User: What shape does this take?
Amino acid sequence: MPKIKTHKATVKRFKKTATNKLMQRKGGQDHFNARDTGNATRKKRLDVSTSKTITKTIHMLTPYN
Assistant: This one.
């Protein structure tokens, strides 16, 4: 059987934890941040766990990670 190719953009955006959960960085951090409140800016720095609807798709795109 041939190997399955890994989707490299997905690997760069999602990390798997030791308990097999998927974590992702919040979006909207590049620009237009001056209008955000301090609380919104701090919340953008945190990683959040991925929703269950796209978890199965991400596992298919990253078979070896």
Notes: Helices lie at 8-13, 38-44, 52-61. The beta strands are 14-16, 22-25, 47-49. Residues 52-61 form the longest helix (10 residues).
